[in-house]
Amino acid sequence: MVEPGSWAHSDRFVPRAFVRPFLRFAQVEASSGLVLVAAAASALLWANFAFDSYQSFFGTRFLLEMGPLHIDETLQQVINDGLMALFFFVVGLEIKRELVAGELADPRKAMLPAVGALGGMIVPALIYLLIAGTGGEAGRGWGIPMATDIAFAVGVMSLLGRRAPDGAKLFLLTLAIADDIGAIAVIALFYTDTFNAAWLGVALVGLLAVWGASRVGIRSMSFYLPAALVVWLATLESGVHATLAGVALGLLTPARPHYPLEVVHKAGRDLISRLESEDDDVIERERADYQLLALSEVARESVAPLARIEHRLGLWASYFVVPLFALANAGIHFGDTSIWSAVLRPVGLGVGLGLVVGKLVGITLFTTAAVRIGWGRLPSGMNGRHLLGVSILAGIGFTVALFIVGLAFVDPELIAEAKVGIFAASIVAGVGGYLVLRSSRPSS
Hints:
The chain is mainly α.
C-alpha cells in the first residue's frame, strides 16, 4: 500500500512510471498467477530455442568456503536452496497467522478443509504409486502430486467474481494452507537424503536463540538477521532441506504486537497536545525530534512483527522469488520427445492423474465423509457443486510440486516427465475448475 507523502507517492519518474503501476497491478488477485505463467512460458521458450544458453546460465557455479562451511552450488541450486527459503519463510508467516488469528485458529472451522487437504494428499500419492510403481528412482516422486499452488488456484477463482461464494474461496484458501503444512512435513520427513547431526544441532540452537530472544523482548533486526542466516546455513549443511529453516523461522515470528493500540493512541495524543501547547519558537527542535522518534517506535511496535514482515516480504516472495524459481526450474527441453509421449509415460501420467483425479476424488470423498460423520459442514453459500469445482482447482500444482521434483529426481528424463505432468494437469485443473464453478449459480 502506498502511503501519502512517501517516496512511492511522489511525482518522481521512478515511482510514477514503475512503482505505483506495479502496486496497482499487485492488488489484482490473479496478478501473481499471471506473473508465474509468464515466467514459466519464458523458461519453456528459452529452454527449447536456446537450451545451451539456459543450461549454462542456471548451471553457473558458486563456491563458498569458510572454515568447516563448504557451499558449492549452481545458480539454480542457489535459487532453490537460498531464495526459496524466503518464500517458505513467508509461507511460515501465513501459517502462523492462520493458526493464531485466522481460520485455522478455530478447530471447528479448520477441521473440514484440513480433512479435505488430507484426502487431497493421500489419494494423489496412491494414484502416482499405482501408475509409476514403488521401485527405483521413479518411486520417489509420490510427493509431487500432493501440492496445490495457492497463487494459481486463488487467481483462477478470483476470475469468477460473485459466481464463487466467499465460503468457497475461504474453503480453498484454508485447504491450500493445510496442504502446505502437509507438503512441508513430507519434504522434511521423506526428502532428506543425507544427515549431519552436528550441523542440525547448530540450527536447533539458533532457533532456540531466536525463540528466547523474542520471549525476553529483543526487537532489533540486527540480532535476528544474523541468527536467521546461521540457522539457514546450518540447516543447509545438515542435509535437511534449507527451505525448512525459513518455515521454522516464520512459525517463531511473534504474531502479537509489543504495545496495544491504546498505548500508541495515548502517546500520540500526549505528544500532539504538548507540541500544540507551546510556542514554536520555544520548542527545541532536538526535543521535538526525540519525541517524534519515540512515537514512531511505539507506533512501529504496535504492529505485530509477523504482520510487519509479511507486509514487507510478501510482494518480494510473490513477484520476484517465485517467478525466478519458475524461470530456473520450468525449462523443459523436449528435443525429439513430444509433450504427448512425455505425459503418457509412467511418471508424467502418475503426476498428471494424481493432481487432476487424485485431488478431485480425495478432497471430495474425505470432505463429504467428514460432513456426514458430523465433523463439520460446508461454509455458508457453498454447495456440492462448489466443492467439486474447488477440488478440481486444487489440482493446480506448480511451485511446491516443481520444488519436490528437484528433490525427488536426478534423472533428466524423469524430471522432464514430471514437469510435463505438472503443466498438463495444472491447465486441465484450472480450466475444469473454472468451468464447473462458472456453471454454478452466483452467490446472493
